[in-house]
Automatic annotation (TrEMBL):
Domain of life: Bacteria
Pfam families reported for this sequence: DUF1858 (PF08984)
InterPro entries: DUF1858, ScdA-like_N_sf
Domain DUF1858: 4-60
Name of this protein: DUF1858 domain-containing protein
Source organism: Streptococcus suis
């Protein structure tokens, strides 16, 4: 099973699982569609941090990723 750690930088997650980018953009992380944003902010921002910045709940991110077949770690201490 593919595992995603919510504490890793978004760019690293997408590098490991390129298909996740479309899922995250659909979820509301629109700036990730811009390669410049992905390669700058994405290198230092985790999904956990991005959740706070975008007001998308960590629970919603975790549920969406799990629904798409990923095991999610690092989200228990929301």
């Amino acid at each position: 099973m593919n595992t995603i750690d919510l504490n890793l930088p978004v760019a690293e997650i997408i590098n490991q699982h390129p298909e996740v980018k479309d899922i995250l953009v659909e979820l509301g992380f629109k700036p990730l569609a811009n390669p410049a944003m992905l390669h700058t902010v994405g290198k230092v921002t985790s999904l956990k941090m991005g959740s706070k910045m975008t007001k998308i709940s960590l629970k919603q991110i975790q549920q969406t990723l799990e629904w798409n077949g990923y095991q999610v770690v690092g989200g228990n201490d929301e």
